[in-house]
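Homework-ish question, so no full write-ups if that breaks the rules, but can someone show me the predicted structure for this set?
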Amino acid sequence: MKSCNHEAEHEEKARSAALNMPAEEETARVAALFKAISEPCRLKILFALRQGELCVLHIVEAAGGTQSAVSHQLRLLKANGIVRSRREGQNIIYSLADEHVVAVLSLACEHLKCRI
Amino acid sequence: MKSCNHEAEHEEKARSAALNMPAEEETARVAALFKAISEPCRLKILFALRQGELCVLHIVEAAGGTQSAVSHQLRLLKANGIVRSRREGQNIIYSLADEHVVAVLSLACEHLKCRI
DNA sequence: TCAATATATGAATAACTGTTCATATATTAG
DNA sequence: CTAATATATGAACAGTTATTCATATATTGA
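A: Not a homework solution, just the prediction itself:
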């Protein structure tokens, strides 16, 4: 495998890109955040939570799917610090974890021309 | 499965969330876009392309991995409208497809405090 | 304490995805 | 035309992930 022989300008870009490539760990962390909204099932859950905090059954109503499937996804989202939860009587109330998450969802909404 | 009996405010939110939930197809489309940057291997490729257009081997240099793996990922990215390509002699030159993609990557960079 | 409700979770399965290896295609130089 | 270079791609495999089913736990009301 040999480096292709474009104009030097391109070589320059390649070097620059390699140099500026973020650290492995950072890349993985951001990738994980985006992964949360890269599956429709989770994206819907997070969209629902943009309305404000919701209990599990209300999330199920809004986002669809079975209680079990939603619960599994919520656990995953929580494990990745994307949602948080608190108990209120019989219910567990979920909400978006931080502004980081809100910002990413806002961008998604812009792309969707979302009216939320 | 019965609707939980929170305050009416919560019921309201659930209805609103269900009502404002984007269409299945739109959700899938956005999910696909974010999916592209939800795996380190692709995220690196896209970061490299923020420098400007690059041929495959230069992408390999910058993002790592084998030529074959990168080529497979490029095909996937192109199929999803995230990168585009043009031939220039022996080389195929790739670039980010549109401002949509640039915006998403910028957000990722902000989260990373990326200096690109 | 007992029944009902809300939520979580382990195990199994099915579907999906990334990588590798070998090979094919396309372009250019000689 | 031939050799070398650049890129693409099919098949196989491994790893990951979403869903389902059954069941467990926790809370409340009677």
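Now go work out the reasoning yourself. Hint: The domain at 8-112 of chain A is CATH 1.10.10.10 (Arc Repressor Mutant, subunit A).
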